[in-house]
Amino acid sequence: MLYLQQVAVAYAGHTVVKDISLSLAQGQIGCLVGPSGCGKTTLLRAIAGFEPVAEGCISLQQQPVSNATVQLAPEQRHVGMVFQDFALFPHLSVADNISFGLLTASKATKAAKVKQLLQLVGLPDLGQRYIHQLSGGQQQRVALARALAPEPKVLLLDEPFSSLDTELREGLAREIRQILQQLHITAVMVTHDQNEAFAMADMIGVMEHGLLQQWATPYELYHKPHNRFVADFIGRGVLLPGTMLDSQQVQTSLGLFRQRYVSSAKPGDKVDVLIRPDDIVHDDSSGITAQVTDKAFRGSHIMYQLKLQSGEQVQCLALSHHNHAIGEQIGIRLDLDHLVLFPRS
Amino acid sequence: MKRSLRDIWRWSVLLPALVLALPVLVIFASVFNPQPDVWQHLRQTVLADYVINSLLLAGGTGLGALLLGTASAWIISQYQFAGRRVLEWLLLLPLAMPAYIIAYTYTGMLDFAGPVQTALRAQFDWRYGDYWFPQIRSLSGAIIMLSLVLYPYVYMLARSAFREQSASLFEASRTLGLTPRQHFWKVALPLARPAILTGTALAMMEAFADYGTVQYFGVTTFTTGIFRTWFGMGNQVAAAQLAAMLTGFVLLLLVLERWSRRKIRYYHQGQRSNAAPRRNISVGRQMLLLLLCLLPVLFGFVIPAVQLVSWALSNYQQTLTPQFGQLVWNSFSLAAMAAVISVLLALLFAYGKRLRPDVLVQAPVRVAALGYAVPGTVIAIGVMLPLAYLDGRIDLLAEQWFGIRTGLIFSGTLFALLLAYSVRFLAVSLHSVEAGLERIKPSMDNAARSLGYTPLQVLQKVHVPLLRSSVLAALLLVFVDVLKELPATLILRPFNFNTLAVRTYELASDERLADAALPALAIVLVSLLPVILLARSVDSSLKGKL
């Protein structure tokens, strides 16, 4: 459906994005996340046709739309786009905004489409309003309806929730996911907020310095990060130093761990073990103890910052009623499902 | 209520505001003193001409300014080409060229004895009557002249409106299947419409108010009709009634302008992203756009300015006399006095509004600031009527009680002129001063007070330094406007008191075009100052927004 092959984008000879390959099947939702300046928006704009690609190829439904020679104009690509500032037309009513992209349709077709889309985004009665009469969340839905109206091949969303209140974001993200799945539409969203990405995406790409660090499902991304950047960027966690005893076992200050597969590591190799806060279980009966250095109350859970006897810091997500004061020693136990190791350089 | 009436601020705002509103009120009051004979005569002879010509002039000028201003604003705001930065402010230059000056300059160039026709005759060996040449002294000539100097109103506002449209709007249009051309017609233009209409309304108001151009071209409009009824027929009430009619047309425009502005606010909501980068185009198209944008500058400023300079150089020995020095002194001192008065009034009103934000203070100030929309001719008559009446009463009383004649102590002196200028240009100074005062947030006052400053010290340490630049700008703007002003000065000036504008007009009317060049050039040169100021402030205010 959407297929990117070794895509590179350059501004004035300076490469911003390089060697990006990814693909989405019909109906899949992909998210690009990464720190600001990582090139994720540039990549999205290249898919939309606002930036030419310097190398590689972008195809939509097996048809190349961007490569070093072909550069289809945005209006000929049939992509829908939802913009960060929504870019709704303030001189048009909600209905006219939604039917704006239906250039050749008859009046009746337009009206039917507008009605259907307003129903879909949950604003059935607001067609005659003007944009300034809508709340931020309503504007967001109109922007989505407008982008969907011409039945685009792929929907692109550029930080669509960044101008909304935090409370609105996740709910709206889930709602939009449902709408997109209902229409079986392929979509790519750019965000810097991984929670939005988790709420929306089938596939997530983590970008840094113009490179795609990993393209994977949310589960894989969290539990099997390819490299230190992805491990650090997605979720919380610390890297605990360890030493390989053989190709499968690693010794750390929290004990000996064993990975299931045989790696190329040699005994004595220095490695870092990724420890997520949910990997550390608070267990009063455990022999290993750590000192609470800081804590953050999260309602159902408490996030503890712990100092191990060896001096390393780890985080522990404990149930809320396990309330300990700062400075206290608490028992912990490591509950690792699988090991994530990075060789230390 | 009693307390509020004793409040000194209210009275110190209300009284001057009433005085400034008086001339316009007098004009409208004149309607209640019917003059059936004169109106019978007017209706049978010239009234239809006045109405039709004034409407055609304003409509034609509006259309011309709209086309020139919108086209140049679109090109400047959307495309990157060599020379764009310079052109961006060069396009403002025609603002410095008063319409009556450009009109007589082009007449000198294009009439039968002028260089253009002479050259044509020499080239093709034509004689008088052999060929057709467009008559510059006509209604269409006046429309072209006015359009050439008034389009910058549209240009300025439209350029900001186009620049403020966020890049994502353009991209949204593209993803929805529109070509760039379709985007212009369906999104960019409708979004800029309020700004464009505002600029067009301003240009049309100026066209309604114009006296010098139409008088010189022999086109009968309301303004020339008011002069003729006042001085030719000697009927001052009928003149005031004509003025009321003209003001009616202008107020309609004002309503249109206000209505357009109201929508601007909505059109800017929720658009936070940056303006679109200017589009890169081929060298050939760059040259074409450069040329297109140069045309209005060339015809609206450069050509007439060069002609003025060459005339002034050709006979400066005869024109650069002590009399000319007297003219400059008269004009400059009068303009300086008017500027100071206008700015003092503006400061009074602006502080009144800030300290007493209630309707009793706001409303009279608003009414007083309407004067900028009212043609100078109308204001002059509105000032003249009550002052002449007042002078008559004073003279009568003085003779009865003290046996002396006081003469025209208000209407025959600079007082009348200064009052008329204050009415006409209060809005200019008020706008500038209020903009400056708005930057001084009330929280700044509170901060200074909490740090131990007395109100007077706050004024001295916070307000004065922060207001200085806007007060200076207001002084300059009013100074130049007064310097250029023609019809009110013509009517209200004391006997034998001449200014640069009046002298330019008189010499041009006597067909002494070359002699008129020196005073005209002086006006144009001084008028350049606020244009430069404007070019810089428009730039920086845009930068502040983005």
Automatic annotation (TrEMBL), chain A:
The keyword Calcium does not apply. GO terms for molecular function: ABC-type ferric iron transporter activity; ATP binding; ATP hydrolysis activity. Pfam families: ABC_tran (PF00005), TOBE_2 (PF08402). The keyword tRNA-binding does not apply. InterPro entries: AAA+_ATPase, ABC_SmlMolc_Importer, ABC_transporter-like_ATP-bd, ABC_transporter-like_CS, ABC_transpr_FbpC, Mo/tungstate-bd_C_term_dom, P-loop_NTPase, Transp-assoc_OB_typ2. CDD domains: ABC_Carb_Solutes_like. PANTHER family: SPERMIDINE/PUTRESCINE IMPORT ATP-BINDING PROTEIN POTA (PTHR42781), SPERMIDINE_PUTRESCINE IMPORT ATP-BINDING PROTEIN POTA (PTHR42781:SF4). This is Iron(III) transport system ATP-binding protein. It comes from Rheinheimera pacifica. The lineage of its organism: Bacteria, Pseudomonadati, Pseudomonadota, Gammaproteobacteria, Chromatiales.
Automatic annotation (TrEMBL), chain B:
PROSITE patterns: ABC_TM1. The chain crosses the membrane at residues 12-32, 52-77, 89-107, 136-158, 214-231, 237-256, 288-312, 332-351, 363-389, 401-421, 466-483, 516-535. One of its GO terms (cellular component) is plasma membrane. Residues 51-255, 328-534 form the ABC transmembrane type-1 domain. It comes from the Bacteria. It is a multi-pass membrane protein. GO terms for biological process: transmembrane transport. Keywords: Cell membrane, Membrane, Transmembrane, Transmembrane helix, Transport. It is found in: Cell membrane. It comes from Rheinheimera pacifica. PANTHER family: IRON UTILIZATION PROTEIN, MOLYBDENUM TRANSPORT SYSTEM PERMEASE PROTEIN MODB. Its main location: membrane. The keyword Transport applies. The keyword Coiled coil does not apply. This is Iron(III) transport system permease protein. Belongs to the binding-protein-dependent transport system permease family.
